[in-house]
Write a structure and sequence with these properties.
The protein has a single domain (6-120), classed as predicted glycosyltransferase like domains (Thrombin, subunit H, Beta Barrel). Helices cover 17% and strands 52% of the residues. The protein has one helix at residues 101-120; strands at residues 9-11, 17-29, 32-41, 45-50, 59-66, 69-82, 90-98. Strands 2-3-4-7-6-5 form a 6-stranded antiparallel β-barrel.
Length: 121
Amino acid sequence: MTSGNKAACIRNKRGHFRLKVNLDAFLQLDGDKFEVKIVDLSTTGLRIECDRVFPAAENITLRFMLHHHHVALRCSIVHAEVAENESDLYSYGVKYSFVSVYDLRVITSYTFEAEARSLRK
């Protein structure tokens, strides 16, 4: 995760904090598995970056570790663009389509703790 300063937490237009992170993850699509990087995270969605092109609206599964817990999310890609300052990387906005209660608790706890730390600084 990035440093715990106030810049690490961003309030998006929907009112949910999006936490800047740097997490390794695996994206599964049609039986294939791809390495991706999660660059921000919230309780409703996240942003990934990778060197592969995926179509918007594609249903995917993301798997990663958070707080020493395995997290698996069913998601859909809602938009795609070239990543900032990285012409060979693509950035994808991802919305959760199914999150287990357990995984949602892990994500909520992680983002809440990071937000609280950043506000104390």
